[in-house]
Design a protein that fits this description.
Chain B: It comes from Chelatococcus reniformis. The complex is a heterodimer of chains A (352) and B (752). With 352 residues, chain A is α+β, with helices and mostly antiparallel strands. Chain A is built from 13 helices and twelve strands. Chain B is α+β, with helices and mostly antiparallel strands and 752 residues long. Chain B has three domains: 153 residues, Aldehyde Oxidoreductase, domain 4 (2-Layer Sandwich), CATH 3.30.365.10; 181 residues, Aldehyde Oxidoreductase, domain 3, CATH 3.90.1170; 239 residues, Aldehyde oxidase/xanthine dehydrogenase, molybdopterin binding domain (Aldehyde Oxidoreductase, domain 4). Classes of the chains: A alpha+beta (352), B alpha+beta (752).
Chain lengths: 352, 752
């Protein structure tokens, strides 16, 4: 492993100063970064360990009802936080559908947001990858790409963002609080990740030294708590990234939808909010035909980037299913196989 | 030698035999507490760390390495390259026996496959060696990679597996197919798979002059010892290999691999102990794999559903520089009665590491294709797939006409079907849904694996204190050899299992043969059994020839060893303890040796196979195509079962691998570079617990008087066969979609 400088700042300003240098990287749980370093995909000069910064591991209710989640809160702790899971059940379900129990016990909120793509060419350092090395080319474009993007991709990059957590977050208008050299600012999660365009290495809107200190879920998003699901198609029942995933949330009064949220995962370089599709639901009494129309709208701009045309129809069907399940109501307890199409099946335990 | 003993008292007082008891594995506590010492856990004083630098191209040569840059990195001690390495006494490309495969030991600058070792960096720390390897920044002269089953022109392999003929015919298949009122023809593809043992290949090597000490996992200690001896030009008995535990092998640790030998070379180069542990991605190349296949099945049947012809042709790949051919079509030799059977193989050479034995090599790949085709034929004949299999039940081995030494397959079908609840299965597909609307399908597959025997030796000792010692250099890969073989050893000595010190896992013990071919318990067990009989015979001679013994004169009647005493066979009230016999003879101990080998007469007379029937239920999301194997029941007849708990565990493992084969496992290779893109356990999928919610393995009683003295057939590999096909057939039954490319993926079903 390449030798690197390890610093452990005591305060956020110290952390920002230390991480603003070229070649620096923040280290939290390291569940992604350490693998990248072992594989030579990331070769930071300096690791800035933020795990000892104070007060970043809290979950707190803000005046007005929003929930503020510290950047260092562990995925498992957040998913099992009762207040959080009650208000934002689809987010809890997404968290519990990701990775393995061991990884969820370690991985942090902000680390999850900033995880790298799982594109095999990004990890294979002998392959050309514009995301890893700007200008190198994209070996995925004509390569083994059945898992790659169908929305928002470019000739420069067809990778997807792998997070489950981020998908319901963008659906629910979650916001990240960022501390940087220019002070504190807020960015919607939806605006945090960038589509590749001609600069796929520029993955997000963070500046050097920027540190995500918290994630905020607005109070308003809790209106969907009774009708919110996250659903994930994967190639084994657990411990697999999504082929396609969807977060669906509906606010229904009587039989009429007052508001709806829809986002897709595994389809683009960022968690994909489907706003135009959402709009089709508002004010209607939803039925199967409506859901199919919503799904068509959500994928209207999709096109295959390789051997992955199936993902487009799969995503449409998943949208229909997720909306159907959301309309049926959030289950009283999280299922034993969170986000799985088989979640309703009897397992070893009835609930997570 | 690790301290291994029963970790819990038996649930009930045992009488007589240790064999047949479901003992909990005796090394279990060591493993769950971390006290079991695996190869990489060893840290001799002065240890250095070696890390492989591997090729990023699949074919060509290394033009340059930045050796100075690597050496300049703090902590780097040396860089072993083709120009700077200890001399070898033997060409790594030499082949002098069928179990000898060509190795990449830095003999030149050629690159044969991506991931091949091209240099070894040796350093004071793992981190320094790792960075040193990265700093080598190789430059290559690359040639286009040959990738996949169509990577080059195909040819007829000289032999498949180990010395099996590449083409076998019995009867006139073409005429039978032409005449058949019903024919089924289909082509199936299976992917490249990698063993992915949990424990990566590791070696800790220390030289003392021309003596060598090695800690390394091995499924074949004496073969490894011989390979090292040949390469380094030293006497085998100067090499001491310790392999008390393996974190899985599955065939990949059957022959010592190139990287393990590079660790030994590195230790020689620097004159200090060296540890080399493969990284996960480095296990995708130099330690073998299961080659991909494309198999064409043509079946003919008469009007009643009786098979008249089976033609099974398999195309596979091997490396550009060596020969191992997955004998996939041979799966059709033994299972179904047909008057005409033809099997054949073709192969292409591509730029990969040489494929090798991987759990049920040939049987697993061939089984999923054959069982799928049989299912297709059953449906074409309008028959239930189980009834079709029973109608075509082979009373003798079809390809040879030999009788089976034993074959309780009918009982397997019956017991498996009963436990599963097969009766009432609708014949047409896509007929069953569960309460949540998921498609439900049921499939069956027949399991079979040959009952093999290699050659092994064992040494038995009875000591004056009445306890015993049994030695054979056996290998516990996790399958439970420490326990099952100790059970046989204790029975051989007529002692309780805790009264016998069972020694295994090192190269200075009698040769236990190879732990492969599902033959280890049968082979090493027979050697232990015979050693026990021999030492008991010596003890009996001492007693029956001594007029002071209550057994005096019992020579003709014979004696029985039980509970640490010899009893007169015709009068069991007359007995004497082992200690008394030895004390009177003035002996501290008595020892004898035994061998375990196949009986050539029995082998030429009988076909010897284990059998089984696997029933699978899958559920498929009708819209999303996601599949889950919700229930598997396998019923297996494998002769005498020494330890039913461990045997079930082995069968579970095989059945899970069958699920993996049908639904999950596949190495993804870039079609241009030949590099594998999912060489890690996050992306190379094997089933997790949630993928196998319900498994049941039924052990069907079977007595086989011919396979060996103990009647053991082996359970290591059979579980994969049958299971993969059962799952695939269940997917068809659930969806009506016959997927012929494995693993079955969502895009194949999404239109279902």
């Amino acid at each position: 492993m390449k030798n690197f400088e390890y610093v452990r700042p005591a305060t956020i300003p110290e952390a920002i100063a230390a991480a603003a240098q070229p070649g620096a990287a923040y280290l939290a749980a390291g569940t992604n970064l350490l693998d990248l370093m072992k594989g030579g995909v990331a070769r930071p000069e300096r690791l800035v360990d933020v795990t000892h910064l104070p007060e970043l591991d809290r979950i707190e209710r803000l005046p007005g009802g929003a929930l503020r989640i510290g950047a260092l809160v562990r995925n498992a702790d957040l998913a099992h936080d009762r207040a959080f899971a009650a208000a934002y059940p689809a987010v809890a379900e997404a968290l519990l559908s990701g990775a393995s129990a061991q990884l969820r016990n370690a991985a942090t909120v902000a680390g999850n947001l900033l995880q790298k793509t799982r594109c095999g060419y990004f990890y294979d350092i002998a392959s050309a990858c514009n995301r890893r090395e700007p200008g190198a080319g994209c070996d995925a474009r004509e390569g083994e790409n059945r898992q790659h993007a169908v929305l928002g991709w470019s000739e420069a990059c067809i990778a997807t963002h792998p997070s489950d957590f981020c998908v319901p977050l963008v659906a629910l208008d979650a916001v990240v609080e960022i501390e940087g050299r220019a002070g504190r600012r807020e960015v919607p999660v939806e605006a945090l990740h960038r589509l590749p365009g001609d600069a796929p290495a520029h993955e997000n809107t963070l500046e050097p030294g920027d540190l995500i200190v918290a994630l905020r879920l607005p109070a308003e998003a809790a209106r969907f708590a009774a009708h919110a699901r996250y659903l994930k198609v994967r190639e084994r029942t657990s411990y697999a990234f999504a082929v396609v995933s969807a977060a669906a949330a509906i606010d229904i009064a009587g039989n009429t939808v007052r508001a709806a949220r829809l986002a897709l995962g595994g389809v683009a370089a960022k968690p994909w909010r489907a706003r135009q599709a959402e709009a089709l639901l508002v004010g209607v009494t939803p039925d199967a035909a409506t859901f199919r129309a919503v799904a068509e709208a959500a994928l209207a701009e999709a096109r295959p980037s390789g051997d992955n045309a199936f993902k487009i129809e799969l995503a449409r069907r998943l949208v229909v299913r997720a909306l159907t399940l959301a309309a049926a109501g959030t289950p009283a307890r999280l299922p034993a196989l969170p986000a799985s199409p088989f979640a309703s099946q009897p397992g070893a335990l009835p609930h997570a | 030698m690790p301290e291994i003993s029963l970790s819990q008292a038996p649930a009930h007082q045992r009488h007589g035999s240790n064999s047949g008891q479901p003992l909990t594995r005796r090394d279990g506590v060591l493993k769950v507490t971390g006290a079991a010492r695996y190869a990489a856990d060893n840290h001799p004083p002065g240890l250095l760390y070696a890390v492989l630098a591997t090729a990023a191209i699949s074919r060509g040569r290394v033009a340059a390495l930045e050796i100075a840059a690597a050496k300049a990195h703090p902590g780097v001690v040396d860089v072993m390259t083709p120009a700077h390495k200890p001399p070898l006494a033997e060409d790594p490309d030499a082949k002098t026996n069928p179990f000898m495969f060509r190795l990449e030991l830095l003999q030149n600058d050629q690159v044969r496959y991506a991931g091949q070792a091209i240099a070894v960096v040796i350093a004071e720390s793992l981190e320094a060696a790792t960075e040193g390897a990265a700093l080598l920044a190789p430059r290559y002269e690359a040639l286009p990679a040959r990738v996949g089953l169509d990577g080059d022109t195909s040819f007829l392999p000289p032999a498949v597996g180990i010395g099996n003929p590449a083409a076998v015919t019995h009867g006139d298949v073409e005429a039978a197919l032409d005449a058949a009122p019903l024919t089924v023809e289909a082509t199936y593809e299976t992917p490249a798979q990698y063993h992915n043992a949990m424990e990566p290949h590791a070696v800790v090597a220390a030289w003392d002059g021309d003596r060598l000490s090695v800690d390394t996992p091995s499924q074949g200690l004496i073969m490894a010892q011989g390979r090292i001896a040949g390469l380094f030009g030293i006497a085998p008995d100067h090499i001491h290999i310790r392999s008390p535990f393996l974190g899985g092998g599955f065939g990949s640790k059957g022959m010592i691999s190139g990287p393990q030998l590079l660790g030994i070379m590195a230790a020689k180069l620097v004159g200090r102990p060296v540890k080399l542990v493969l990284r996960r991605e480095q296990m995708y190349g130099p330690v073998g794999h299961r080659a991909p296949t494309r198999q064409r099945l043509r079946l003919g049947a008469d009007g009643e559903g009786r098979l008249t012809a089976i033609a099974h042709h398999a195309k596979t790949v091997t490396s550009s520089f060596d020969d191992f051919y997955e004998p996939a079509a041979d799966a059709s030799h033994t299972l179904y009665a047909a008057p005409a059977i033809a099997t054949s193989h073709e192969a292409v050479r591509i730029d990969i590491g040489t494929p090798l034995f991987m759990r049920a090599p040939g049987e697993a790949t061939g089984s999923i294709a054959l069982e799928s085709a049989i299912d297709e034929a059953a449906h074409a004949c309008g028959m239930d797939p189980l009834a079709f299999r029973l109608l075509n039940y082979a009373e003798v081995e079809p390809i040879t006409g030999k009788p089976f030494s034993s074959k309780a397959l009918r009982e397997c079908y019956a017991q498996g079907a009963e436990r599963f609840g097969w009766a009432g299965r609708p014949r047409e597909p896509r007929q069953m849904r569960d309460e949540d609307g998921f498609l439900v399908g049921w499939g069956v597959g027949t399991a079979t694996f040959p009952a093999l025997m290699f050659a092994a030796e064992a040494r038995a000792v009875i000591r004056a204190d009445g306890t015993g010692v049994m030695e054979t250099g056996a290998h516990d890969m996790g399958q439970g050899a420490w326990t099952a073989l100790a059970q046989i050893a204790a029975d051989g000595l007529g002692l309780g299992i805790d009264e016998v010190e069972f020694r295994a896992g090192t190269s200075d013990l009698p040769d236990a043969g190879i732990a492969g071919g599902s033959a280890h318990t049968a082979t090493a067990g027979t050697a232990l059994h015979n050693a026990g009989a021999a030492v008991i015979a010596k003890l009996a001679d001492l007693a029956t020839g001594d007029e002071r013994s209550p057994l005096f004169g019992a020579g003709n009647a014979g004696v029985v060893a039980r509970g640490g005493r010899l009893h007169r066979r015709d009068d069991q009230s007359r007995s004497e303890g082992y200690g008394e016999i030895l004390a009177r003879a003035g002996l501290a101990e008595v020892e004898a040796r035994g061998q375990g080998t196949a009986d050539p007469a029995a082998q030429s007379t009988y076909a010897m196979h284990a059998h089984g029937a696997v029933f699978a239920e899958v559920k498929v999301d009708p819209d999303l195509g996601q599949v889950r194997a919700t229930r598997l029941v396998g019923a297996f007849a494998a002769g005498r079962i020494i330890n039913p708990k461990l045997a079930r565990s082995q069968l579970y493992g095989g059945m899970i691998w069958g699920v993996s084969f049908a639904l999950h496992e596949e190495a993804v290779t870039d079609r241009r570079s030949g590099r594998i893109l999912n060489a890690d356990l996050a992306e190379y999928h094997v089933p997790v617990n949630a993928d196998v919610p319900s498994l049941e393995a039924v052990l069907v009683d079977e007595h086989d008087p011919h396979v060996n003295a103990l009647g053991i057939k082996g359970v290591g590999e059979i579980g994969i066969t049958g299971s993969a096909g059962a799952v695939a057939n269940a997917v068809w039954h659930a969806t009506g979609v016959r997927v012929r490319r494995f693993p079955i993926r969502i895009e194949a079903l999404i239109g279902a």
